[in-house]
Amino acid sequence: MEARLRTSLRPGAQTPLDSSERAALARIDGTRDAMLARTTAWAVINSGSRNLPGLEAMAEQLVAAFSSLGAVSLHDAAPVTAIDTAGCAVALAHGQNLHVVCRPDAPVRVLLTGHMDTVFGIDHPFQACRWIDGNTLNGPGTADMKGGIAVMLAALETLEASPFAAGIGWDVIINSDEEVSSPGSAALLVEAARRCQLGLTYEPALPDGTLAGARKGSGNFSAVIAGRAAHAGREPEKGRNAILAAADLALRLKALTADDLSVNPAKIDGGGPNNIVPDSAVLRFNMRPSTPAAEARARAAIDALAAEVAALHEVAIHLHGSFARPPKPLDANQQRLFDLVRDCGGALGLAIGWRDTGGVCDGNNLAATGLAVVDTLGPRGGAIHSADEFLCVDSLEERARLSALLLMRVARAGWTR
Questions:
Q1: Which of 103, 144, 163, 340 is the most buried (most CB within 10 A)?
Q2: Cβ neighbours, 10 Å, residue 50
Q3: Could you give the CA distance from residue 129 to residue 381 in angstroms, rounded to a whole number?
Q4: Structural domain of residue 375, as residue ranges?
């Protein structure tokens, strides 16, 4: 069987389930309700990225859920600063991040990642679950990604109960700040990625089962603009209008939009009474490059345009931010893992396809280390980041089987980075 499995790692090959795989996967049969119970219990815990008590409660639940599988630890977030509305750098707190390790000395190691935070703050009205129909559950984080964590956990439980577990080691990282670009957990993710041969991330698949292929990168920036106040009627010429400079910079940045780069000037903070030339402003903007070359071009353009606007308007501009999510092209390294996922899906009767997306996730950061990673192995779902978010409940078992089979086949056949 090992020789046939090695063949299945090549594009276009497909190996049907053998009796040992069927026996191992049978453990997932009938576990839908258990996975659903975990998902709904976690979904009603508000764990918005800024809700530290809620994140602490969610972390406690995850420690209990994963403690029987490996060595569990919680890691404090790295220090992070943000720019407030006055243009000052302030400390920004994030929750702790879960790390689970099993067989760290195994020759083949897999990194499985997820996030416990959601986009729904403590004061958001979307706090409860409800059934839309017999297979569709509406609830905060049900798809993105508490249902994904339930799928990950079921797959690992299946692997550990199988005869193949000894052939593979794994790390799990479930972070608390993915929805805000993982500033406090990025170093933990990269460190783990460099120890592993491949990565699996449990963002939701689309409702039809399609996975994300190539992803754009993403950078969030704040331009802090310092001008000079003056009386708007008596001596406006003595003022240096920070709002005007911010608007000019926003227009110039937007003009950088190209086929391989999207630009979104999102907000301008600043200003005051109508009779005062505003002396401060903060422009916030997002950029999404498709390639590393586009990212480099955008970074250079930001600096150049800020210098031009500062000189023209006689203001000072300080830039804060970075491209926290590198582009994730579907290159040959990524394609071979997609091929293996597709072939495992074929063995289970699932048609696995993928398409490019402008959305970003921790998969971007993992791929930037050279790791092959598939980042939409969670359940099928949709309308994420809205109060209409839904989970296709029948996909819990379906996607747990897919991940479990993938892990077992890597354990049996190996994987080289």
A1: 144
A2: 16
A3: 14
A4: 2-216+328-413
Instruction: Retrieve residue 119's tokens.
Output: 């986009």
CA 332, distance to chain mean position in Å, is 22
Same domain, 26 and 144: yes
Length of the chain: 417
Number of domains making up the chain: 2
Helix, strand, or coil (residue 296): helix
d(CA 55, CA 127): 14
What's the CA gap between 98 and 26, in Å, rounded? 29
| CATH number of the domain encompassing residue 342 | 3.40.630.10
The secondary structure of 119-156 as a DSSP string is: S--TT-S----EEEETTEEE-TTIIIIIHHHHHHHHHH
- Helix/strand/coil for 113: strand
**Among the listed residues 10, 83, 8, the one whose alpha carbon sits nearest the alpha carbon of residue 282:** 83
Q: Final residue of a domain: which of 324, 350, 377?
A: 324
Band of residue 13 on the pLDDT scale cut at 50, 70, 90: low
Q: Which of 152, 185, 193 is nearest to 70 (CA)?
A: 152
| CA–CA distances in Å: residue 356 to residues 122, 178, 215, 216, 288 | 32, 20, 6, 8, 13
List CB contacts of 64: < 8 A, sequence separation 6 or more. Answer: none
Secondary structure of 17-63 in HEC code, one letter for each residue: CCHHHHHHHHHHCCCHHHHHHHHHHHHCCCCECCCHHHHHHHHHHHH
> Which pTM value belongs to this model?
0.93
Note if the bond before 145 is cis, omega within 30 degrees: yes
Task: Give per-residue pLDDT as tens, 17-52.
Answer: 999 999 999 999 999 999 999 999 999 999 999 999
Distance linking the first and last C-alpha atoms of the chain: 22
